[in-house]
Amino acid sequence: MAERTLTPPEARPVAPPRPARRTAWRGELGRLLEVVALVGLVVTQPLLDVLGRSPDFFLFHRAAPADVLLLVALIAVVPTVPFALLGAVSLVVGRVVRAAVHTLVVGLLLAALAVQVGRHSTPLRGVPLLLLAGVAGAAAAVAHRRWRAPGRVLRVAAVGPLVFVGLFLFASPASAVVLPRGHSGAAGVAGAGVHPPVVMIVLDELPLVSLLGPDGRIDATRYPHFAELAAGSTWYRNATGVSGWTPYALPAMLTGRYPAEPVAPHYSRYPDNLFTALGGLYEIRAEESITRLCPPSRCDQPASPEQGLGVLVRESGKLLRQVTAPVDSHVDPEHSYRELTRAEAGLDAAEPVPADPKFRWDALNDNQPARFTSFLAGLRPSSRPTLHFLHLLMPHAPWRYLPSGAQYAAPEDLPNDGAGWVDLARQRHLAQLGYTDRLIGETLRTLRATGLYDQALVLVTADHGVSFLRDWQGRGMDAINHAADQVAWVPMFVKEPGQRAGRIDDRNWQHVDLLPTIADETHIRVPWRSDGRSAKQAPRDRADKLFYDTPGEPVPITGGVPSPPAPTVPDPLVGTRVGDKPAGGTATVTNLAAFRAVDPAAGELPALVWGSVPASVRDGTKLAVAVNGTVGAVVPVVPPDQGGRRFAAFLPDDRLFVAGANRLDLYLVGADGGLRRLRLS
Known about the structure:
Elements: H1 20-52, H2 55-60, H3 65-77, H4 81-90, H5 95-121, H6 126-146, H7 149-156, H8 160-170, H9 175-178, E1 189-190, E2 198-204, H10 224-231, E3 234-236, E4 239-240, H11 246-255, H12 274-279, E5 283-287, H13 308-324, H14 342-345, H15 361-366, H16 370-377, E6 386-395, H17 421-450, H18 452-455, E7 457-462, H19 477-487, E8 492-495, E9 503-505, E10 509-510, H20 514-522, E11 524-525, E12 545-550, E13 553-557, E14 583-589, E15 608-612, E16 622-627, E17 630-636, E18 647-650, E19 664-669, E20 675-680
Parallel strand pairs: 2-6, 2-7, 3-9, 4-10, 5-6, 14-20
Antiparallel strand pairs: 1-11, 3-8, 7-8, 12-13, 14-15, 15-18, 16-17, 16-19, 19-20
Helix pairs in contact: 1-4, 1-5, 1-7, 1-8, 1-13, 3-13, 5-6, 10-17
């Protein structure tokens, strides 16, 4: 037997130890991948999901493809950077501290994810939801610390942000804005006859009932210029939009086809539309807002300045706060749709200020939307037939204009529904409609001054309405089911060339009828099939209508010309002078400082007052709000909203205010009508 020699342990070769620093970096990379996965779920996915379904957000803010790509890169990368820096700093401390910091980060991110999941799957909101999410985050962090499997899953899931970016760029409706496909829109065929200039204004979020007086006609006292328009045109009183959502409603109007797919309101997705049909013969001057249906081959870029990346980042930050909040929020990029004024956009006025005796026309001119200014500037006769098109987000929210044209400030999160709030929302809507009436008047004045009025086919309408019925406010299916007369029925005025007298036509008009009607009036044959029926043809036999909350899913609605709303009787205290009254409590007015230095000439007034009163003041108690001794509004005390507000009062009468310091007083209104003055802070 061969003799075996044993090597002493101390003589055996020893493998070199793995460098501690390399191990630390490898571990940090794994931890970073876990954070990337969680940030992708908490930030990247919800933001890109909302934005991907909102191509109109990018179109309204005039975002170039490069702006959108940079925004997507920022959303996917920047939220991870602080955690990466924290991990790099933690390399200089001990392993125990490093692991504890990572566990804390994972727990916080998992708790943030639990808030989003809990808001969609449980009835909990606010502090209870935060507590539940905290417990869930802590439990998940403990599991992550004890077992390896959760960390492995997260490291694999680190590919998530790349997947979310890919879905946004190639599969979302917004992809058409970033990566537009080619277009081959068909041009119409010119027929025999005159090709008149076309002036078309599409307003937004304007129910017909908002314009009606008690007699069912346009309220000429409140809206004299709409009444003037009706007096010289054909008013289709039974006209309905096709959808409560502009990205579906407006393409249906301009293509003559009902919405079939949830795609971007972009020329690459709707190549055949009014602009291409008339574009072979007509010069196109189009001011679009949240659509881009006119292709570059037919239209120049809008005249107003680009809004660009800065506003995209700011509004995306607001969206992030909404999607991560532990309370319900209607995450809607439309909240950022505020038309820039002429002054903000740096545009010159289209016309000199007219000698108009109405109060504060100068403020109207100063605060005139830039898009409207550009539209007015283009209303000039031309040797070539011209389509003048304007889609203006008026009287669409956010509501910030008084009928005079003066602006006022308001909290962005002010509720629009519930006791007291829905009435306030409708008051503000009607005030902004009064301002819109002034814009219609300026359009009619300009058309007459340039000689276009008699020559042109003039169309004024709105894409959809909105419900102000309590508990069913808005434009969704609930509003359609309970207040279709406010959501679907819209104003529709058509003034033919040379028309002098007004008339009313109660045929079953649906907005897919708009394109065929324009084609007949301009003697253009549209080379594609339309779902609409020209007003030159016999009316429809059927009385029912089709409405689309979701493309491809028509909802039949019935009804005819809407009845005027019940008249609102103002509180008898409104307009009265208030003398000395006994003190009796306190109130907090958030914007009290705005009354210390008012400058009406600047076109801004503190016309909305909001705040709170002590819990001892019961809900339903009336508050009288007086400016400089005159009561301007009487409002109820309501349960606190998310911002803690228990009242808000709207003061649309400019005559309440004076230049300089203004006195604001709030009074509790007793059951006997007596007033007690509240001390304000």
